[in-house]
Structures are given as C-alpha cells and as structure tokens.
Amino acid sequence: MDEITRLTDSIKNLNLTDCTTKNQGYDRVLLQLFGFLGHGKSSFINTCKYVLEDGEYQNYTDSKNSEGGDTKTRVTFPLTDTLTLVDNRGCSAMNDYETAEIFAQLANLLPLDKGVNWSKGFGLTERIIDAEADVKSSDFIYPIFVFSVKQGLPNEEMPMIKELLETARDLTEIFPIVVLTHKTSGNLREMKEKFENMGAEQIFALENFTPEDCIKTKGRHEEVLNIFCEIIKDIEFSLERMGDPEKKRQGRKKKVLKFIHEREVKNKDQELQRQQMQLKFMRRK
Question: Which InterPro entries does this entry report, sorted A to Z (predicted)?
C-alpha cells in the first residue's frame, strides 16, 4: 500500500468511537471554514473532495461563481461518515456586526444549509434563540481559517485577525488551523511569519484545484491529506478534554450573546458621544 492510499484510508475510516476516550457524546465533526470573502473557502472544499474521493474533478460549490465571495448560506459538504466541511458565509469588513455573525456560525448556533443574513441590533440574538431546535449539540466543532496569500496582509490588519483567531479559539477550545491558498501568488514565507506572530499553531499552504487546473500530482494530494492527518490528531487530543456536549454548546452561546450585548452597549455609548459632540458644535455656532 503506498503512502497516498494509507493516508486516504486512515482519514476515511475515522470514527470518533475509536478514539482513546470514545466519542464523549459527539457523533460528527464539523470542519468550520471561516474568513474573508473571496479567499478560496469554496475552492478548498472542491479540492478536499477531489483528493479524498480520487475521482473526476467536480465543482461541488460552484466556486467559479463564488470567487468574489457570493456564498450566503452555511452549506455542508460531507467528506466521510464522520467529517463534514461547512462553508460559512465570509465577511467583507471586520466590523462588530460581521464578526458577531462569524462567531455565531463558528459556535454552531445557527442552522446549517440555510441562508445567512447579517443582522444589526439584537436581530442575531433572536435568530440564535429561534435556531435552538435546529442545532445539534453532538456536532464537534473544528475551526479552519482560510486566507489567500494573493490578497496580502497589511500589518495594520494583523491585530484584528489575531483577535478573530483568539476568539475562535475561546469559542471552540481549539486554535484554528490556518490554510493559506494561492501559495505561489505572493510572499508565502512572509505570510507564514505573520500568522506565526499571531499565535497560529499550524499553518498549511496549497494551491486549490480548479476546473481549469485539476491535474493530479503526488505533491498536491499529500498537501491536502497531511492537513487532515493533523486535524485528526487535534480532534483526538481535544476529545480527551471535552466535557458534556450540551454544556459546551450552552457555554458557546453565552459567550456569543455576551459579545452581542457588549457590542450594542458600546454602539449606544458611541452614538451618545457623537450626539453630544454635535450639540456642542451647534452651541458654539
């Protein structure tokens, strides 16, 4: 058996009940992809399915039409009986409204395979409460941050992304792995150093397969398979330390609802300050 076949089989045969501490009440792993619009999440899904299924290339996500970030639904793509990729809606601007939506998706507080519409005010809180019956506590969450080397990463944006990664860690109790796409379209070494400086523990780089570029090579296959092998190691390590799935979900919900509340308090304070400044300006006139 060659190395490619061995790795593929070990990934496909993953069963949480085979882990040292059994499944701890979890029956499925949601590989939660998150990040900015147009950074290659959908193409990464096509790439993963192409490698693991080892058949003809298929555009499962219609990624040619979503390169600009058109995904507006949390779509699930089963890879194996245990592993499911989730293409979460990406953000265009890292403001408090979009980050709250990302956290709610990552925490698995919103329904799968349904549209995601950004909500202002306490609209997200209402959607989270409405989704209670549709969310499974038995889903084990694994975060994957997808970022394109081609897009570049200005130094002034690093604190914002660092905070996003750290919040994802706090919600899921796993530091997100970083998948760098378009690895030959920019300074890959510099990009890796930036994410290392933000605390990223595992960073992988690849060129996604596309309808126009889907020639199979050993190197490209191994890149993808190695990502999943490391993910499985993380899952097995984390399962030993996870508690009751329902308590974990409730804990995630409290953290996200607290974020939304603090956001609204801050927004009201800022609006009050703006009005006071405007009043002072009018009085001086």
Answer: P-loop_NTPase (IPR027417)
